[in-house]
């Protein structure tokens, strides 16, 4: 369908910043003192805080039992059936006895039911979190530290007790970090984890999980390793053991004893905090990133809102209270969340039902799973990795869509595989942030031209019909100008304008310096005859015995001298008037230097989002340098926060006023054409514009 062309006529006055502020009645935005509201005491305030931090009190009284209970019941049972083998299996990933996976499938799930805001995610054990915990427990409580002196075998009971203490303390520390970050509204921290980074990280973690389960699938007994290149050592040991045939026994490892009943709460070990804080922060951020990303997907699909800060608090309380009851850190599971949604789950009542089902298994039915082979649990883990391993297809899609994101994906994956999960995450975050800085240092710079019969200005290199306005250069950068790219902005501006500004300024200064030296030399040469004449005048003596004739003759000579002096004064005055009419000897034209083919420069600052001191200095230098070569500079399209920051930085003064700042590029172009600095204006062109 063809677009019908319509002619629009917009008539308004030309506006600079001063006129715009006067017309729009701009006033400085007064920041609300948020801290004052924190200390207000009222019934409404107390109720709002209660519902904010206990969301279950808001939605549970309004729960439609007839409509949703059956779906939540079926969904909860379905999730519990998945939660049981996953809990046992993911405990193996964490380097713990399987029963602690059941504990981690009960306490945190019920706590999230009370404090969470997502209605569909399934909180509990997760492969990525478990393997991160396993790398910590195996590094702080390795098998070598529990070798018995008598027969050089590992004291499994002592090792497991030490690892449980490490894992539960880690869970408490993760919970404290998450609750603290949530209370100070630090939920935005996950914005630094881009989607390619998270997907590559979980893919690499799934590869590590897959490799770690091979020893259970093949029934191999291998010493565990952690740290950089640990994945390579695992792979190598498995290949050697299986290829050489070191394992000839046919005994199958099973889950082992599952004690009935719940364990009493145990205080964490503060001595471990200093050694665990780095890993705890990484686990806290990764766990929250996975949970909030899934939560927002389901919230968008079903039309409700997820509070990121409250989610951080809810996950933190789940890990904090769970750690006291000897659980390891948890997050939400992708596969269980999909099952919870697809089987009819509407609220976290489904999560509460699944946790109660796990409680029944812990109390009464746990002994039924004591003879479950660990190879079966390993198979359960590997099957549940299918979704994350399918993320390898991101490589093809990112190659077509965005290769910078592909680079982030590959660096994250390789770093996580080679350097382990904690160091890999740190490398990935630092690399992605550095890439952001590099991309702001390499923005797209453009000289803009006017699209015919419009007030729209576009890059002349991209739009063939866009034409530069004669005598005016319009320059724009696609990124904000700050300390990292301010110098590059200035260099590219001078390059795109087609004038070697720095060379022209240096040549001008050199010629002016020569003129000044020549003038001083001429003044010095003219001063010598004047001094000689003055010395002769002072040496004339007056004869007292003078006759009348002499006096008369002297009067005649004196009158001649006066006339001569008056004539010299008139000549000097005439020369002064001629000098006043003469052209400025410091202009480029009189100095014989080439003049720019434009008289005005307009900086399109629409992409400027903030201003720092380096940006202020760079803008002032641009004004100074271009004025030095007789080009007037204007700014256009600044946002109000940027104008406020310019005012706060004392950018405007006697030489740069708000009259140099215009509401739009078109306003600045019209003003520049009507007020050229060194070139005549074409009135026909102004009328067309």
TrEMBL record:
How does the record say this protein sits in the membrane?
Answer: Multi-pass membrane protein
Is this entry keyworded Transmembrane helix? yes
Q: One Pfam family, please name it.
A: Sulfate_transp
Provide the primary localization: membrane
Cellular component terms (Gene Ontology): membrane
Q: Name one GO molecular function term.
A: secondary active sulfate transmembrane transporter activity
Name the residue ranges with Basic and acidic residues bias. 572-582
Instruction: Tell me the superkingdom of the source.
Output: Eukaryota
Q: Which UniProt keywords apply?
A: Membrane, Transmembrane, Transmembrane helix
Could you tell me which PROSITE patterns the record lists for this protein? SLC26A, STAS
Question: For this UniProt entry, which segments traverse the membrane?
Answer: 88-115, 172-194, 200-218, 230-252, 272-300, 312-331, 343-363, 375-400, 406-438
Q: What are the boundaries of the region Disordered?
A: 553-583
The residues covered by the STAS domain are 462-672
What subcellular compartments does it reside in?
A: Membrane
Q: Determine if Iron-sulfur is one of this entry's keywords.
A: no
Q: Which InterPro entries match?
A: S04_transporter_CS, SLC26A/SulP_dom, SLC26A/SulP_fam, STAS_dom, STAS_dom_sf
Alphabetical list of PANTHER family matching this protein: SULFATE TRANSPORTER
Protein known as? Solute carrier family 26 member 6
Q: Which organism is it from?
A: Phocoena sinus
| Lineage of origin | Eukaryota, Metazoa, Chordata, Craniata, Vertebrata
Q: Which gene encodes it?
A: SLC26A6
């Amino acid at each position: 369908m063809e677009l019908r062309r319509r002619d629009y006529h917009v008539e308004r006055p030309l506006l600079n910043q001063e006129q715009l502020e006067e017309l729009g009645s701009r006033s400085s935005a007064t920041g609300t003192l948020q801290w004052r509201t924190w200390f207000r005491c009222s019934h409404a305030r107390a109720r709002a805080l209660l519902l904010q931090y206990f969301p279950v009190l808001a939605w549970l009284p309004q729960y439609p039992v007839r409509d949703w209970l059956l779906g939540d019941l079926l969904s909860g049972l379905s999730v519990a059936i998945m939660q049981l083998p996953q809990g046992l299996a993911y405990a193996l990933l964490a380097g713990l006895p399987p029963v602690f996976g059941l504990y981690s499938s009960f306490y945190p799930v019920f706590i999230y039911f009370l404090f969470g805001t997502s209605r569909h995610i399934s909180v509990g054990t997760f492969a990525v979190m478990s393997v991160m915990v396993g790398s910590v427990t195996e590094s702080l409580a390795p098998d070598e530290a529990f070798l018995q002196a008598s027969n050089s075998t590992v004291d499994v009971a002592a090792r497991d007790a030490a690892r449980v203490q490490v894992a539960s303390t880690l869970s408490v520390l993760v919970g404290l970090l998450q609750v603290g970050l949530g209370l100070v509204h630090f939920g935005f921290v996950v914005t630094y984890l881009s989607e390619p980074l998270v997907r590559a990280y979980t893919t690499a973690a799934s590869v590590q999980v897959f490799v770690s389960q091979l020893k259970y699938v093949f029934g191999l007994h291998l010493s565990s390793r952690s740290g950089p290149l640990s994945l390579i050592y695992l792979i190598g040991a498995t290949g050697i053991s299986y290829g050489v045939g070191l394992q000839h026994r046919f005994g199958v490892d099973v889950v082992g004893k599952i004690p009935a009943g719940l364990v009493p709460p145990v205080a964490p070990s503060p001595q471990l905090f200093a050694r665990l804080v780095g890993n705890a922060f990484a686990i806290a951020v990764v766990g929250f990133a996975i949970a909030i990303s899934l939560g927002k997907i389901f919230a968008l699909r079903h039309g409700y809102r997820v509070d990121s800060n409250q989610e951080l608090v809810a996950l933190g309380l789940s890990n904090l209270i769970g750690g006291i009851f000897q659980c390891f850190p948890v997050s939400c599971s992708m596969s269980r969340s999909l099952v919870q949604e697809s089987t009819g789950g509407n609220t976290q009542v489904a999560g509460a039902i699944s946790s109660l089902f796990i409680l029944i298994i812990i109390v009464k039915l746990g002994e039924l799973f004591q003879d479950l082979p660990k190879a079966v649990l390993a198979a359960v883990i590997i099957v549940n990795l299918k979704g994350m391993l399918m993320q390898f297809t991101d490589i093809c899609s990112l190659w077509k869509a965005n290769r910078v994101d592909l680079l982030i994906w590959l660096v994250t994956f390789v770093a996580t595989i080679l350097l382990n999960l904690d160091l890999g995450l740190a490398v990935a975050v630092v690399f992605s942030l550095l890439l952001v800085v590099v991309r702001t240092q390499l923005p797209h710079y453009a000289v803009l031209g006017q699209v015919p019969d419009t007030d729209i200005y576009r890059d002349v290199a991209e739009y063939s019909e866009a034409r530069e306005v004669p005598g005016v250069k319009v320059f724009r950068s696609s990124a904000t100008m700050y300390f990292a790219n301010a110098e590059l902005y200035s260099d590219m501006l001078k390059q795109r304008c087609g004038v070697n500004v720095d060379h022209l300024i240096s040549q001008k200064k050199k010629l002016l310096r020569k003129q000044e030296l020549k003038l001083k030399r001429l003044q010095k040469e003219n001063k010598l005859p004047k001094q000689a004449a003055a010395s002769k005048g002072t040496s004339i003596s007056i004869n007292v015995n003078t006759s009348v004739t002499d006096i008369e003759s002297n009067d005649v000579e004196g009158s001649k001298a006066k006339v001569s002096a008056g004539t010299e004064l008139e000549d000097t005055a005439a020369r002064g008037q001629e000098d006043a009419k003469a052209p400025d000897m410091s202009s480029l034209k009189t100095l014989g230097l080439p003049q720019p083919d434009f008289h005005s420069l307009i900086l399109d600052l629409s992409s400027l989002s903030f201003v720092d001191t380096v940006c202020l200095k760079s803008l002032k230098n641009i004004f100074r340098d271009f004025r030095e070569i007789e080009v007037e500079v204007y700014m256009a399209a600044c946002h109000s926060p940027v104008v406020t920051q310019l005012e706060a930085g004392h950018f405007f003064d006697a030489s740069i006023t708000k009259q140099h700042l215009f509401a739009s590029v078109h306003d600045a172009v019209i003003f520049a054409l009507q007020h050229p600095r060194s070139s005549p204006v074409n009135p026909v062109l102004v009328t067309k514009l």
